[in-house]
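Morning - 3-methyl-2-oxobutanoic acid inputs below, output right after.
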Amino acid sequence: MTEKNRDKNRIWIFDTTLRDGEQAAGGNLNVAEKLQIAHRLARLGVDVIEAGFPAASPGDFECVRTIGQEVQGSTIAGLARTREQDIRACYDALKSAPSRRIHVFIATSPIHMQDKLRLKPEEVLQEVKTGISLASSLFEDVEFSAEDASRSELPFLIKVFKMAVASGATTLNIPDTVGYATPEEFYEFCKAIIEGVGAPEHVIYSVHCHDDLGLAVANSLAAIRAGARQAECTINGLGERAGNASLEEIVMALKVRQDFYGFTTGLDTTKLHSVSSLVSRLSGIAVPPNKAIVGANAFAHQAGIHQHGVLKNPLTYEIMKPEDVGASGTELVLGKHSGRHAFNDRIEHLGYALTREQAQTAFELFKKLCDTKKNVSDGDISALIADEILVPDQKNMYELKHYSVRTGEGPALAVITLATNGGEISDAATGNGPVDAAYRAIWRAIELEPELISFSIDATSDHSDAMGEAMVTLRSGEIVAPGRGVSTDIVESAIKALISAVNRLYVIAAARGVELQKKQKPAA
Ligand code: KIV
Ligand code: ZN
């Protein structure tokens, strides 16, 4: 018995993102990607990582073998049917893993036994006996799952689990394979199994729920209340059909409502966000913005009343701190529902000290902008303040006077002339295409090179004489400024957008009393 088993208040987290999660439509990870995820799961503090199903394919075998050898800190599990070749494949994949588990399963519901396995209940019982006996001769740590347990007959299920324990299983898993259970019923069901099997102390019960009715997390928590001490789950709730129980939701429910459940896990929850992003990026399956814990909006408040409350005390509308799950922080999304408090707070945060009247005008302009733009970014607010409040009459620092570009063989060449302070500055540069060359020439001319955070050019219609609308965002130190330029000549629109962003950088810097960092003339 390990330390973890002895602690009755500790819930083991068994992550199956790489096995059940990978069965999600579209999710197909290669060995290197799975290894990267497994390392991060281990650092997150997951107790068991189910790395794959070695008998399923050479790729899965390789993956379980590699993860078993290279990932430290978690037990690595491989899945197997009760068949000898599956169990031996799992052993071969994990024989040199420092901490390993075999996870053997067979279905126990009438519909699965009759229509899928075409086995009688006594034959299934025999499969459990031979499969688990072989598994326990090769592994110390043996998990047995009764697939489709929630639709199995209780007396038969108890018999099957008793047989698994007698044959050497150390973990008994109760899956709701098709997401059919409901929390109240599943609680009673799990309780009845645990009482009926009467397993010795060293055996722990596990739960594995699917989300077909959106109840996977609720059912997992019900099973934990009934006596399960291991929860099987996946990052972002990835998995077959509607997915598996989401790891981050189970873990945070146990943490935030420890007063109710009374359990802990060994996870460093501050790593949840980054692991979620990694899994989403590598699997290509996006996290819905409203997803609990890790969704982009999980800590975003748009309603004015909520924003007001959160500014006074985050706990008015937040039950956990964003930092507890590694999120970047509470975000007050500014839009048409936002109130004056949130707007003023953002202005302050952006470094402006406006008078009461200026703040009032800015708020009115902001509300108008919200009617045309769904999400108003910090850059939009800075632009609004720079253009409309701080220097409505001030001349721009730079205006485009003239430009020419030469393209064709070799790098493009641009020559730029800008009007400034009654004079002119001019410079030339080569670049990778006409826009790049023009931008380099501008940086040389103005001796400034802010970071180009975003750049796009769109046509304003689908005709060949369409205007090109260029948008850029620049950052210099803490200051972020957007710029827009429109022209039938797309190079000119890109140049105008850049110059308008540069002008705004100057206005914002002056308003904050800071100097923009000058740069030595970069090479032509
Ligand atoms: O959903 C399920 O029943 C499974 C088993 C293999 C545990 O994934
Ligand atoms: Zn499953």
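Note: Residues 301-389 form one domain.

O.
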